[in-house]
Amino acid sequence: MTRPLYNLEMDEMPETANVGLWYDKFFDQWSGDFKEIEEKGKTQWIDNITKHQKKDIGEPSHLLDFTNRQRTLIEENGGMVITIQNRSPFVTGLGLNHPVENGFKWHHTLGVPYLPGSSIKGMIREWGENWDKSQDIEKLFGDEKKVGTVVILDAIPIEPVELKSDVMTLHYGPYYGGDEPPADWHDPNPIPFMVVKENQRFQIGIFPRKQNDHEDCEKLYSMLKEAFEYLGVGAKTAVGYGRFELEMAKSPEKEWIINTAREIEEEHNLLDKKIEKFAKKFDVEPEVMAVVNGAPMMLAERWKELEESELKENVRHEIVKILKKTGLWKKKRTALKNARSIYEDR
User: Fold this and answer.
1) Which of 2, 186, 193, 207 could form a disulfide with 77 if both were Cys (CB 3.0 to 4.6 A apart)?
2) pTM, full prediction
3) Are residues 205 and 259 in the same domain?
4) Residue 8 lies in a domain
């Protein structure tokens, strides 16, 4: 069957495709005359994205480039780079038009789900107007006559995103349509929709419109933290969707070290209570402490494979700093000596 938009014959989405473009424009579950959707067509189309893909959504190098540029913009304007992680599934763009009845918000060029800065701003404004009334909302966000003092950027995934399918069930269709009162004999109507799975990480940023408005960023951050936790963002927040935790973001080099150390630690189970005690003493993440102590060569070999020169040098500097701070730099163990020689040769 040809696609409604393009006269193409493709059995599955190309691996390098923009997933958002594919999801929105290449829906192929119509009947022959394009007037009705085939039985289970909506569910099958969502499952095509959430269950049958070989990898998570998003190209890692593109996301890294984008978030690095975003970070530079924020820092050069004296702002705050913030990392958020969803504790519950969230859905964005549910009200957008789509053949499956429920739309989804995709970043146009990255092809990943994201949270528009306008949505985040609206959530914080609602929190300020209805719960935290201690702040000058009109000053922070502006009004009909002037703009606000703080700029809020979109929330973009830091790494590829995992999606899953969900369902909402309409039990009283005729009642909601205004034709009949609610009754037990009405047939339920399951409606599938797509959500972002829990524990996905996003980067957002806030910065002052003018340099003397920096204190307003501090005020906004405290409101942002509470609003994300108690109100949520996106659709269906009333039933628990869209709850986030946030923290001030770490630098790209620290992010790389932490993520790489977690992968190595999970593979080799290096963490124990003694290591956790040392990690707390030196203010180092437990997984990082476990790897620099128990598998320093694995970390060094991963570091050697880094291609981006600036990130590679920053990572090396950070690892050496950790080794020296924890007293491991001068240890004579063979693995530590070999790892040290790798960082010294660079």
Assistant:
1) 207
2) 0.67
3) no
4) no
